[in-house]
Design a protein that fits this description.
The protein has a single domain, classed as Rossmann fold, CATH 3.40.50.2020. Helix content is 22%, strand content 34%.
């Protein structure tokens, strides 16, 4: 498919079949952990939508889905201030909440959303990220379900973007 975005070369990091298998494995684990629970899965837009769509098809229990939209990257390659664009549409008090994110970078976005969710008194709160960057974080973030550990590189594909481009790539690439 594409070999560059905005004049920057793309190097393959994770192939689509590996992603598919990992997402399936995460779905099975979540299914086992949430048997007989009142599960609400919250996806962080826009990055998580492809991951979440595939993940929920691998979860074999009843779930409810909602989305929260946050902006932190703007058109840059480094995260900035976190801004709430669209809030949740359902109450979360006494619900078992699983927050799904495509990528954990410095932790600012997840910390922002975690505080917001916990202030609404869910029964439980866990997090699931497809890509976890190996790096020192600004915030102490516990991740309960991790797809892949990756180096601290800017990546694109499978929902992640570079200035709104590349989300449609089926594989994950490092942007050089």
């Amino acid at each position: 498919m594409a070999n560059e975005i905005k004049g920057r070369k793309l190097n393959l990091l994770i192939k689509s079949p590996e992603i598919k298998q990992k997402v399936h494995d995460l779905g099975k684990q979540i299914t086992n952990d949430y048997q007989n629970k009142n599960l609400l899965i919250i996806g962080i837009l826009k990055g998580s939508f492809i991951f979440l769509a595939d993940l929920i098809r691998s979860i074999d229990i009843n779930t409810e889905i909602d989305f929260i939209r946050i902006s932190s990257y703007k058109n840059e390659m480094t995260p900035g201030n976190v801004e709430l664009i669209t809030d949740l549409g359902v109450p979360i008090k006494d619900r078992d909440v699983l927050l799904v994110e495509d990528l954990l970078d410095n932790g600012g976005t997840l910390n922002f959303i975690r505080e917001k969710i916990l202030s609404n008194q869910p029964a439980s709160f866990k997090t699931c990220v497809l890509l976890n960057k190996k790096k020192t974080r600004q915030f102490d973030i516990r991740i309960d379900y991790i797809g892949f550990q990756i180096d601290d590189k800017f990546v694109v594909g499978y929902g992640t973007d570079f200035a709104e481009e590349g989300r449609n790539l089926p594989d994950i690439y490092v942007v050089e």
